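Many introductory courses stop at the sequence. We go one step further.
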Amino acid sequence: MSAAITSPLSPENWPFGLENLPESAYLVGGAVRDALLSRAVGDLDLDFVVLSEAVNTAKTIASHYQAGFVLLDAERQIARVVFPGVTVDFAQAEGGSLEVDLGRRDFTINTIAYHPITKTFFDPYQGQQDLKQGLMRMISRENLADDPLRLLRGYRQAAQLGFVIEPETKQTIADLASLLPRVAAERIRTELGYLLNTPLGVPKLIEAWKIGLISPWFSSLGDRRDRLKNLDHVAAAVSQTYPPLAKPLRESVRETIKMSQLAIAKLATMTSEDRDQAEAELITLKYSRVEIRGVLALLGTFQQLQPTPIADLSIRQQYFLFANVGEFFPALVVLSIAAGASLQEFTTLINHYLNPDDAIAHPQPVISGKLLMAKLGLSPSPLLGDLLQEIQIAKAEGQISTREDAIAIASQKMLELNL
């Protein structure tokens, strides 16, 4: 491993000058680890440990470069400087020394420090050796117990890096698994999100479930582990056959939602098949409304497909399938195939979905509710919504195409209801 190929270690790639750092400043944590692994990352995150004046150092740099300044922890002397695309944290060394500070961290691969002035490494826990061997090794049992989120983070980092967890460390995580529920749900959800979005995350999720680490939230996963294992493979096959589905399956559902549709499908596989119970599990973990809606839509639509072969679905049934699952249709395809359906069975539905003008998958109004009310003397009511829906279905079935047709079909439905 060579520092020469690692851009986070090169001050010329930083948004501030090396001369702005105190002599005691060391770069630590993920930036050093990823640099030594030559691992590509997104936005640059730099973490520095200094022996004194951490907050003042951050203030000085922020002021000099007109960057953002955030005081993260006044008591522990931790502050952040925010540049466009770069976040720089400064923390005062715990215990008054770099070695003590590093010794309070989670895993050896995260305890490697780099001194940018002398271009030397400080590696008291042989983190570089574990990097070479691809091992996640704890510093101590006490460190993991101090912050139980580290138990799950070990599995997350192992998945992201393609590492294995060293046996003694794995056993210790299992021994301490009962501590994880003490951690704030938001923090647990964040780690789960990384695992769900990481291609190698599923095996680690299953390992974590087996040792009781995540089973308090996903007690019924056991029966669907094989389905969960199949999802990434199925998504790759679906994306290869239908390239337009690759983007929604792999990228974030929304700008504010960091989970992909594939991750939503994995989450739906891990939750209870009972929608009320699944909703309760997701609420406990503080998932967003969009994420919960996606999982529940998948569960409900997937269950509706079970008694009826996909090829036998009527136009009306297809219409309601798309209405119910909405934007999560690609995830439904993957989830269904992982459970035993064939891609060929979904050909017709996928073609509907990929056609933006399709009246079944992407219905467009034939007539406005306002005009229909005026023509038929209706008031705003559930009946109006039902009539508009019947008009859309009639269009999907090819029965109507004009406003006049829509008014006629609505009139006919009202006669059938004796209205």
